[in-house]
Amino acid sequence: MDQEPSPDIGTTLLFENERLRVWELVLEPGQSSGIHRHFHDFAFAYVTEENELEVRVPGAEPAPTSAQDGYVSATTIGDGTDSRLVHELVNVGATRHRQILFEVLDAPARSEGPAVTENNGRGRDQWAEEGGA
């Protein structure tokens, strides 16, 4: 991961206004999202049947994730210094992965401390279980 992190958190920008940015992220087997950085609170929903993914944070072991269609996760970025806000998502499975991401552009002032992630429990997400970003 020698490249500069991108602010683009998806593969296709679907919608943007002053309050919200909506992305689609599609990863074929073996494909990476590329390293990117989250600057805003965000949420995503998986719209894919099967998936085996890894979240790769520079300097950390890959964090495996696997979730059902309809898995939803939301992250507040805290003070923005959490190292996990810079990462890439890699499709290590055998099927296409698709998710929709929402960036909240007009969120309230950042809180102190690390990023905090919550999800709806429809998957195994080591990254989110460790605090996630």
Provide structural commentary.
This protein is mainly beta. The protein has a single domain (12-129), classed as Jelly Rolls (Sandwich). It has one helix and eleven strands. It has one helix spanning 126-129; strands spanning 12-16, 20-27, 36-37, 41-46, 53-56, 63-67, 72-76, 86-91, 97-104, 116-119, 123-125. It has a six-stranded antiparallel sheet, with no helix packed on it. A five-stranded antiparallel sheet has the order 3-8-5-6-11. The longest helix is centred in the C-terminal third of the chain and has 4 residues, at 126-129. The protein is globular and about 40 Å long. The relative contact order is 0.29.
Layout: helices, strands, pairs:
Blueprint: E1 12-16, E2 20-27, E3 36-37, E4 41-46, E5 53-56, E6 63-67, E7 72-76, E8 86-91, E9 97-104, E10 116-119, E11 123-125, H1 126-129
Antiparallel strand pairs: 1-2, 2-9, 3-8, 4-7, 4-9, 5-6, 5-8, 6-11, 7-10
- If strands are numbered along the chain, what order do they take across the biggest sheet? 1-2-9-4-7-10
CATH class: Mainly Beta
Query: What is the architecture at the second tier of CATH?
Result: Sandwich
How far apart are the termini?
18 Å
* Rounded Rg: 14 Å
Q: Sheet bearing the most strands, described?
A: 6 strands, antiparallel
Short description:
With 133 residues, the chain is mainly β. The chain has one helix spanning 126-129, and strands spanning 12-16, 20-27, 36-37, 41-46, 53-56, 63-67, 72-76, 86-91, 97-104, 116-119, 123-125.
